[in-house]
Design brief:
The protein is an alpha+beta fold. It has one domain. It is built from 7 helices and 13 strands. The strands form 4 sheets. Strands 5-6-7-8-11-12-13 form a 7-stranded mixed sheet, with helices on both faces. β6 and β7 form a beta hairpin. α2 packs antiparallel against α4. The longest helix has 19 residues. The radius of gyration is 17 Å and the shape is globular.
Length: 240
C-alpha cells in the first residue's frame, strides 16, 4: 500500500508532466532499450536509509533539517530515472516551483538504495538569450553571477563507505547531464564543445557516511571524495 506521501508525489508527477517544459516520462537504459520512467524512489526505503540524520540546509530551509525530508522534497516535480544495463538505477527530480532544489537516489541491481543526494543551485550551460550552450568559464561565471548569489552545492550520503567509490562516477555523469539540461545528444557535432566543457566544470561536492547512533539523531562522518572520472554513460540517455 502506498503511503500518503507517495500518493502525493505520484499525482504531482502526473499533473506536472504537462506543466514543466522539457519533462518526459520516458528514460533509456544504457543498453539502448527504452523503459517507462517518471517514478520516484520508495519513500519508506529512503526514510530507512536516511534514518534520523539531519544537516544544515541554510539555503533551502534556513537551518538544520531532516535529510530524508530534503531528499524527498527534491522529487516533487518531474521525477525521472535511468535504468542501466547492470541493473543500477539513477533517480532524480526537483522541488515543485523550485527547480534549483534537486535530489538524486541511486540503487543497486536489487533495488536497494546505495546513495542519496541533495543538489542545489546547479546553473546549466544554456544561454537563454542566444539559445546556444556556453563553452567558456568566463561566460559561465557571468551567468552564475546574474542568476544566483551562492555557488552550486552537492551533498551525498551513503551508509557503506565503499558505495561512494562505486556510485560516485554515476553521480558525476548525472551532474554533466544536469549542466547540459538533460535531453541532449553529445554525438551531435555542434554540441561537442559544450559536452566537453561540462566535464571541466568543478561543482563543490561533500560526501557523508550516515552512522546509526542507536538513539537520537544519526551521526554523519565526512568522507574523502574518490579521485575517479565520470561514468561513460551516453548523455543522451538522461531524459527529463
Amino acid at each position: 500500500m502506498l503511503c500518503q506521501r507517495s500518493i502525493l508525489h505520484f499525482f504531482l508527477g502526473l499533473v506536472l508532466v504537462g506543466m514543466v517544459s522539457g519533462t518526459s516520462c520516458v528514460t533509456h537504459a544504457a543498453n539502448g532499450s527504452a523503459s517507462l520512467g517518471g517514478d520516484v524512489p520508495d519513500d519508506k526505503m529512503v526514510s530507512i536509509f536516511a534514518g534520523k540524520s539531519t544537516l544544515e540546509f541554510d539555503r533551502e530551509y534556513g537551518g538544520k533539517a531532516s535529510i530524508f525530508n530534503r531528499v524527498m522534497d527534491g522529487f516533487e516535480a518531474a521525477p525521472s530515472y535511468l535504468s542501466l544495463s547492470d541493473g543500477k538505477k539513477i533517480y532524480w527530480g526537483f522541488k515543485y516551483q523550485e527547480a534549483s532544489i534537486q535530489s538524486i537516489v541511486l540503487t543497486d541491481a536489487d533495488n536497494r538504495i546505495r546513495l542519496i543526494g541533495a543538489v542545489t543551485d546547479i546553473t546549466d550551460l544554456e544561454d537563454a538569450e542566444s539559445r546556444r550552450f556556453i563553452t567558456s568559464q568566463q561566460e559561465y561565471q557571468r551567468k552564475i553571477k546574474n542568476i544566483v548569489a551562492e555557488p552550486a552545492s552537492v551533498k551525498l550520503f551513503v551508509r557503506d563507505e565503499h558505495d561512494l567509490v562505486v556510485y560516485f562516477p554515476l553521480v558525476k555523469r548525472w551532474l554533466e547531464a544536469d549542466l547540459l539540461g538533460f535531453n541532449v545528444d553529445c554525438d551531435t557535432p555542434k554540441l561537442a564543445e559544450a559536452c566537453r566543457f561540462s566535464q571541466e566544470i568543478e561543482i563543490p561536492i561533500v560526501a557523508y557516511q550516515i552512522i546509526d547512533s542507536g538513539k537520537g539523531a544519526d551521526q554523519l562522518r565526512e568522507l574523502s571524495l574518490p579521485n575517479l572520472p565520470a561514468a561513460s554513460i551516453p548523455i543522451k540517455y538522461f531524459k527529463q
